[in-house]
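Summary: Need help interpreting a holo structure output

Steps to reproduce:
1. Submit the protein chain below together with the SMILES for guanosine-5'-triphosphate.
2. Request a joint structure prediction with the ligand placed.
3. Inspect the structure token block that comes back.

Expected: a single structure record containing both the chain and the bound molecule.
Actual: see attached output.

Input attached:
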Amino acid sequence: MYTNPGTTPADQVSIPDIQTEGGVCASAGFMLAEGVDRCPIPIFVLNHEHSILHWNRALASLSGHPAEAMIGTQLQWQAFYPSARPTLADLILEGALEGDVDRFYHGKFRRSQLIEGAFEAEDFFPEIGTEGRWLFFTAAPLRNAEGHTVGAIETLQDVTEQKRAEQALRDSEKRYRLLSITDALTGLYNSRHFFSNLQSECERASRYHQPLSLLLLDADNFKQLNDTHGHLEGDHVLQALARVILLCVRSTDSAFRYGGEEFAVLLPGTSLDAATQLANRLCEMFASTPLQLSSSAVIRCTVSVGVSEYQPGEKPSAFMRRADEGIYEAKRLGRNRVVPISHRGED
Ligand SMILES: Nc1nc2c(ncn2[C@@H]2O[C@H](COP(=O)(O)OP(=O)(O)OP(=O)(O)O)[C@@H](O)[C@H]2O)c(=O)[nH]1
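--- attached output ---
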């Protein structure tokens, strides 16, 4: 007969011996204990006094705590936590309800779909190994013939590699998404992102009755610059303009390159007047920024800016058209200037 050491006779589970083919009597209990010990899944078993009955080889290897040091003690927490606290198996043994488990494993656990009274959880254990490990662990009650809980079993699986792979996938999806909305030359957002943001910011401004302004910027005499200094130098000037835009806007604003030498800035929570002031600062800063060419020559470039403020309920295209009119007017008036266009009520 196999009896769990450390349990009272009433709690003990008796397992009949087995007659093997060779006529040798093998204890089913012995085989069960051997099965737990050699199981490649880390396992420990507690008796009703929370003392460790089994601490298998896989768990010894995972935790670095040998079975000899653990069996018969109540030090199961030492393998997982820096200070004494219940493990999931301890909570199960105490007949913990969901609220009790939640206190220790908030947002990280759920009831088992397979075994009544069992829970499963996933958590990061910084104490294990040199860098910590992610473990998926389950704990289930062990009951005697009368249905009383006489112990608990906990299994643990190291899911660190899977977690790392999931994180790497999330990171690469994030990088890919960022790339898909970024303009390669300037690092600002691209035109696709501009048009989707324009739509969503207009909806938000309408819903929350918040001001929203738009700057459209067009580099001046850019064809001439390209023709004189070459396309590559033109590209450097566009990069310099992007840097100046980023220096002038706030973290809540978004800057885009939506065409060749055309840029846009969406300014949530900003009135036409405030947006015009910002545009003037930007315009002056760019005009006064010396731009060094690869030939060492230094040039200065300018930009024309149109500004508009969104009218709740109007189409984004109408909002954009006014800023565009501002650019044309700025060009007509001699370039290197900002022209705000107020809503005239015709849209
Ligand atoms: N270097 C460079 N040039 C570009 C890029 N995209 C567009 N351009 C050039 O920008 C120039 C724009 O020329 P136009 O539309 O005639 O305007 P402009 O010469 O700037 O004149 P105004 O807008 O009236 O001041 C064209 O020569 C385009 O080839 C780009 O990514 N890099």
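--- end attachment ---

Reviewer comment: The two ends are 91 Å apart (CA to CA). The first strand starts at residue 17 and ends at 19.
Status: needs-info
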